[in-house]
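[job 0412] stage=complex_fold ligand=thymidine-5'-phosphate status=START
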Amino acid sequence: MNGKFITIEGIEGAGKSTQLTFIKNYLTAQGKELVVTREPGGTVLGEQIRSLLLTPSDIAMAVDTELLLMFAARAQHVAQVIKPALDAGKWVISDRFTDATFAYQGGGRGISQQRIEQLAQWTLNGLEPDLTFLFDLPVELGQQRVLSRNQGKDRFEQEEVDFFQKIRDCYLQRAKHQPSRIKVIDSSRSISDIEQQLSAILDSI
Ligand code: TMP
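[job 0412] stage=complex_fold status=DONE, emitting structure tokens
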């Protein structure tokens, strides 16, 4: 039996990492064999591409370069990690996947959804998550949480509020159109409420 493919999405500061740990522990306790990974990244090559994408630089990166690098890292990730794990019956949890490209490069950078769709069809061969958790909260709250981490900002985190607002809108729009796959989780609720909601959804797949 094939494993399940779960992805985790949301704007900066939406609490993905905390909830990823909960999801990982919950599924492990059920005896699932898990592969936990992330995008951009998840492979040696992909992590090198991540560094190109996230490290702030004086050289302005063209939006198409950004888009193609995301898919270059993803092609490697799918071939080397995701597909083999699913074929072996393992469950894969990825911190971000193609919905992030639609939201960031589409909504945020303004590349047409159709253009991204073409690249997705080319590189993914129909691979889609079985379930996506979209952690949602107002952009200003997310930004406050990022600031409180007290780390240097990466190339995306340096963007203005308006950029993240467009990303949030795009994520929510996608969730509206694909409600059976994309489950919106209100990140402003208490941790125990969120965990309850996550476990109910995980029990249902
Ligand atoms: P992270 O901070 O959640 O690890 O994600 C790294 C950054 O990369 C985050 O700002 C979102 C961005 N990103 C895209 O712009 N497009 C994508 O397709 C992916 C996977 C991530």
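The mean pLDDT is 96.
[job 0412] exit 0
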